[in-house]
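Quick note —
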Amino acid sequence: MVKVKAITDHRSTFLKTVYKYDNLIELMNHERFINVGENYIKYSPEAWKVYKMDKSRVPRFCGSYETITRAIFYARLNR
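Predicted structure written out below.
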């Protein structure tokens, strides 16, 4: 099963949730480690946001979701 990449965040809510779904998420330290064309997840206190790295290495916003499971689903769906 292919894991979805997520940018590491220092908030405890992020860490607790990500470690709970460790089999679905691969943690990355920075956006520079995301390959062109890959979807990844970023956490904000309001929502889980899905981005896609385009050819010019600029993140393209794909959507925000209330739960991490929905964000993972849509990140995998939009490959």
